[in-house]
Amino acid sequence: MRSRRAVLSLGSLVVVSGALTSACGALPGGGPDRRTVTVWLMRNSASDAFLARFTKKFEDQHPDVRLDIRIQEWTGIGEKVSAALRSKHAAGAPDVIEVGNTQVPQYVDEGGLLDLSLESARDLGMADWLPGLAEPGVDKSRQYGIPWYAANRVVIYHKGLFAAAGIEKPPRTRDEWLDVTHRLDTGGVQGIYLAGQDWYTLSGFIWDEGGELAHESSGTWTGALDTPAALRAMDFYQQLQALGAGPKDADEEHPSQAGQFARGHIAQIISVPGAAQQIIDKNPALKGKLGYFPIPGKTAARAGAVFTGGSDLVVAAGTGDRAGAVAVVTALAGKVWNTELARTMNYVPNKTTLADAVADEPGVAAMAVGAAHGKATPASPLWAKVEAADNPIKTYMSRVLSGADPATEAKKASREITRRLDESGA
Question: Choosing a second label site near 373 at 20 to 30 A (CA), which of 9, 151, 341, 347?
Fold first, then answer.
């Protein structure tokens, strides 16, 4: 992917440098005083058809505003957004930007975002937001990131292998999950394929136990893999991972767990539902044989916690049109358009109260159950240093799964996390 600015082409609608083609039809109020609000959205976050409908409706309802939607690539976007926020709204700079939910703390730390706390409390229904999208958008009780859409992991399972093992319904608790997976792990069947370095899945187990990856106190972050809660989570991960042949020293993409599942002898993987299509593409015989269920929790009353990925919408502090920018965010994050986006793109809507909108899509419905208890990585602006190529959480997991003492390795990893999150650079 390229890190240059791309221009969105929407079939008959093309927005280039604030100009619209005649294919859009007449533009009400399109006089010289019409303001342009520039919006940066990421590639594939919304379909061309969705954006065409949104643009027309928004401009009809706001005749004094013209939308200039520009599609960006994820590669290199961090540096590009930071530069745009520093520009203080130079010509062509964005007013509204879609950012990854875990990226918000970085931009807040750089001082480039508008405080949207008032709008969040007054207009946007923040009480119902998914926590995994909302929490990274907060700094010192001020809301900067507005949740837009989410996606998270579920369990994808092979219905035929479940039936052959006499398992009639998916497990709802961790204990049931271990029992079912043990029953499935027999003969030539793997009960589950769980790579040893799937740290996002481990994170969910840690949150279920009441732990964290890192704790913050007075602006100082400390790694927390050595807490009793995190160690209990790693113990559960070990038990589950042993019920299959996933590698201990690699993550879920090396090799691709979807590719492994497609061979037909794996009963379960933990993944986003979109992996099902990759599986079917590799093995069409599995079409109609895949099911989904939320990652089980400690009790049947609550599904397991999950890492919530997705996007927030932010407004540049230097915007030349606060009212117009906030109106765009309010519309995109509001019930009507957020529901339509979720249905169009198979996302989880930004509010728990909108989960019914995706109830007819099994994979997305399973995601929505987990997303209600989802979280994001620690809101440190330096967290990306932890997720670097030599991620200490991955190293810790592999060493424990290979027989090293969990407490000892957890202390080592926690010290390294603390070092990487030290803003003093010491």
Answer: 341
By C-alpha distance, which of 410, 292, 282 is closest to 348? 292
* Spatial contact of 354 and 335, defined as CB atoms under 8 Å apart: yes
- Burial class for 188, CB neighbours closer than 10 Å (0-12, 13-18, 19+): exposed
User: Which tokens hold the place of 404?
Assistant: 């090293």
412 three-state secondary structure = helix
Write the CA distances from 124 to 40, 57, 331, integer angstroms. 21, 19, 9
Q: pTM for the full model?
A: 0.89
How many angstroms separate the CA atoms of 119 and 217, rounded? 28
DSSP readout, 300-350? TTBPPP-B-EEEEEEEBTT-S-HHHHHHHHHHHHSHHHHHHHHHHHTPBPS
State the Cα–Cα distance between residues 130 and 166, nearest whole angstrom: 36
Rounded to whole angstroms, what are the CA distances from 115 to 218, 237, 377?
Answer: 21, 39, 21
146 vs 127: CA distance, rounded Å: 12
Give dist(CA 85, CA 30) in Å, integer.
28
Give which of 171, 183, 189 is closest to 295, Cα–Cα. Answer: 171
Q: Is the CB of residue 89 less than 8 Å from the CB of residue 318?
A: yes
CA distance 127 to 105: 20
Whole-number Å distance between alpha carbons of 205 and 199: 10
Residue with tokens 């899509």: 361
* Spatial CB neighbours of 404, under 8 Å, sequence gap ≥ 6: none
Using CA atoms of 22, 13, 24, 34 in order, give the dihedral in degrees to the nearest 10. Answer: -90
Structure tokens at 155: 């369990």
Q: What is the pLDDT along the chain (426 residues), one digit of tens a residue?
A: 332 222 222 232 223 233 322 223 333 344 557 899 999 999 999 999 999 999 999 999 999 999 999 999 999 999 999 999 998 767 779 999 999 999 999 999 999 999 999 999 999 999 999 999 999 999 999 999 999 999 999 999 999 999 999 999 999 999 999 999 999 999 999 999 999 999 999 999 999 999 999 999 998 999 999 999 999 999 999 999 999 999 999 999 999 999 999 999 999 999 999 999 999 999 999 999 999 999 999 999 999 999 999 999 999 999 999 999 999 999 999 999 999 999 999 999 999 999 999 999 999 999 999 999 999 999 999 999 999 889 999 999 999 999 999 999 999 999 999 999 998 766
